[in-house]
Amino acid sequence: MPRFRIIVVDDDPVVVSLVTEVLEGAGYEVQSADTAAKGRALVERGGADLLVLDRKLPDGDGMALCVEMRTKPELKDVPVLFLSAKTAVEERISGLRSGGDDYLVKPFDLEELYARVEALLRRSGRAGQPEKLEAGVLRMDVDARKVFVKEKPVELSAKEFDLLTLFVRLKERVLSRDFLLQQVWGYPAGAPTETKIVDVTIHHLREKLGSHGEKIVTVRSHGYRFDP
Q1: 3-state secondary structure of 70
Q2: pTM (global) more than 0.70
Q3: Which of 15, 57, 192, 226 is the most exposed, having the fewest neighbouring CB atoms within 10 Å of its CB?
Q4: Pairwise CA distance, residues 8 & 83, whole Å
């Protein structure tokens, strides 16, 4: 995965810690600031591929920083994901009108955060660079959609490949069946379903990966985790 630089601007250390953990676990470079002024300094010093920005900061509303960024040619296309405890529709609209690209209400699900960050990077064109993934003896060429275990090619179906890609990107994190259905099969969030497609696909994926398939661990009542 290209080393995307994400800057998180939030004065809640718990939120910053959780966001940093999930994004660094997915392979992103993450830096954080607890004020708009510090966030501005980070962006101006090294640029950013995406900004995760809290609406309420000790030195003002995060919207002001977003508006300021949009006036600078080198920053006007950087995706901005707003975080806020405010649920009113008007608050979301004002955030988007200030130049924000997406809006996530606290408390939020970390899987949804990751999915939104990935979508924003993809839409911005930043995720169009060649992507290679490795986990022990497993190697993936995401653009060529090729998988190798101990340098031997493994033939996977389209969904098996997409599933494995997600597992490797988010290795060591428990991924729920609902999350996998949304990300791999395109199910809407919260859609009621009794399908066993996730379990069946993982069964076939494990078989094709041979002994390496044991790295896909079932976490009872929660989902699955990939342990490299």
Answers
A1: helix
A2: no
A3: 192
A4: 10
